[in-house]
Amino acid sequence: MSLRLYLDAAATQARRSLAYRVDFWVEAAVVFLVSLGVAWSLWTAVFDATGAARIGGFDRPGMVLYVVTVLLAAKLVRGADLGDAAVSSDVFEGGLTRYLLYPASYRGLKYAEHVGGLVPALVQLVLFGAPFLLLLSTPEAPVSPGSLAMGAVSLLVANLLCWLLLFPFHCVAFWAEGVWTLVLAVRFVGDLLGGVMIPLGAFPAWTQPWHAALPFRHLYAEPVETLLGRRDVATWATDLAAAGAWCLVLAVVGQATFLAGRRRYTGPGI
Length: 270
Known about the structure:
mainly alpha
């Protein structure tokens, strides 16, 4: 089992994701500018309508900064696992067969491909997100090289957590066909309870214990708040340890689900 095999899988997927460079740059610029414009218009209207000075722990500039950052970070956390490289596609189309012949872990190879496909999102986050964060740093969001470094580590763990969270649902393809709807539903719940749609602080007080107990906050809200300098080192380390524990739990669940499904796999495809 060679590390080179995983690196080659990641590199191949990275080249594929950057094959259409003009489309990549146009999409990168347009998505960033549109996200910024929508966030500013939407939350300006919300603050004006409510008359509130702060919502969910953010003032108006802080809210716009959070929303744009979380949208960029979410692309890096989620990746493109609904594409051709998805696990469920391998099961439906019979592509899993060739992976079973490789001298390497199937999950390891699929995650390597997933990481390779993150290159466009990573480039967008670095080129657009990092300067944007540093330029708009405020006393409420004291962005610094230290917060960016801690946030980068949190994003790496969040990406692994997101992939491990979705893996068992992709494995449902061994038993059923309605996997895409199921995966999309899980992603929607993750976006809602992870802080992509609304900052977690804006949820009612009675929901906060649920946010603390579930893994979704580790996907988006915590990495972004770390990037924005809103978490100290001790809190960041505690959150990172909790996210790592969830990764271990989901890794065990995913492996058990995959092994159970593989015993049913016949490999003909559809």
